[in-house]
Amino acid sequence: MDFGLSPEHARLRDRCLELAADFATRSAAHDREASHPTENYDILRREGFLSLTVPKALGGQGISFLGHTLAYEALGQGCPSTALSFNMHASVVNPVLESPEVSDATKRYIADLVVNRRKLIGGNFSEPGHTSLIGERPLTARATRVPGGYKLTARKMFASMLEATDYVMVLAYPDGETTATAGALMLVPRGAPGRSVNANWDVLGMRATRSDSLLLDDCLVDERAALLWTDDLRTFRRSYFNWFWGSYTAVYLGVAVAAYDELRRVVRDRQPEGYAQPLAYHPDVRRHVAELSADLEAARLIVYRSAWLSDRDGPTDETTAALYRAKYAVGEAVGRITRVALTLGGAHAIFKGSRLEQLFRDGAPGAIQPPPSDFCLWNMGIYELGLDPAAVQPPIMPK
Ligand SMILES: Cc1cc2nc3c(=O)[nH]c(=O)nc-3n(C[C@H](O)[C@H](O)[C@H](O)COP(=O)(O)OP(=O)(O)OC[C@H]3O[C@@H](n4cnc5c(N)ncnc54)[C@H](O)[C@@H]3O)c2cc1C
Predict the structure, then answer these.
(1) Contact 206 CB / ligand 1 (< 6 Å)
(2) What's this model's pTM, rounded to 2 decimal places?
(3) Beta carbons within 8 Å of 361's beta carbon, 6+ residues apart
(4) Tens digits of per-residue pLDDT, 13-56?
(5) Hey, what domains does the chain have and what are their CATH numbers?
(6) Which residue from 82, 88, 131 has its CB within 8 A of the most atoms of ligand 1, so it is best to mutate?
């Protein structure tokens, strides 16, 4: 099954592989310093990636979700942090541009920012108290109407590439609403008064995403900042699972590909003293590599199918289950592949500066990145058994 890959897809993937090769030359330095790969973001801006998936009707290139998936699998092989962070842009911009709940004026405003003015937009929905353990994420961030615009108060967390973006799209509770499902998508410019950053992203892997904490203290934004203001955000969120979280899956697939390729290079190159053949000839090494090849190919096909289904059918239950399955398969595969690659690389591989060491750490958040593997299984089980989600008991007792 070729999933209808077009010559345009092939060109995009090839270009992304070229960019990834360049990004890879700086990836270790950004990882070590936990620095923003801004020069990579600039290249991606120049190369048209801000408007890659913007619908053609709004001036973009109209690349499908499958095309985006191929592109970010390739980019993830070079500098995982660059790909994961930059994906944040499409993951929040596309839902706004595609949703019937967003006004045409707002869509034109965002498309103008992205296509004509080449603005990079991040997204910050997460808060320190959020967990998918119970599936609900009550918002403490507040958006309040004031004369001429809105005032925002928030303690947000995990905002990738925050200080490298021109705007960040923030999810807040709309003041005056009463339902638990209400939400407001607010666009906060970099220099907005009352906006500051707590640079606390000192972590194991994906260090150069710099997913710092965003602080909003009576932060003032103008009238156009409210991209969506609704008493029920559920349909909007569910309709764009593909962009909101499904788009990150491809990046971790790319990490798995990179680790697999690096492992094969290492065992082919390393010839121990006193032997006429490199480690690759050892039967156990061959067997490990063969097993990983099956993991990788299975994960890749599951991911491509989920993207193809998303493009073909939209947000059906089957598509949603396929996206969860893809995230689960990749989260598990990237963990296994990077771990086995590190093991076969041996003590030579655990030094700082070793590609396998970095990919081991960059792959570690694969199963954690939302939706975490456990949460994927929770949802896949409900789908596979044909259960009514509303009839499933909460896993721990609510207040
Ligand atoms: C590299 C990276 C970049 C990020 N960038 C951004 C960003 O730019 N913007 C943003 O808003 N957020 C971002 N996030 C944050 C992310 O979206 C989550 O909000 C955050 O990871 C939630 O915290 P948690 O993983 O501790 O949550 P939890 O949901 O509490 O997960 C912790 C663990 O609990 C278990 N678990 C969770 N749910 C279930 C379940 N239903 N059943 C059984 N077990 C379960 C799993 O083992 C899971 O790994 C980023 C996260 C990472 C890792």
Answers:
(1) yes
(2) 0.97
(3) 31, 204, 205, 206, 207
(4) 999 999 999 999 999 999 999 999 999 999 999 999 999 999 99
(5) 7-120 (1.10.540.10), 124-231 (2.40.110.10), 240-391 (1.20.140.10)
(6) 131
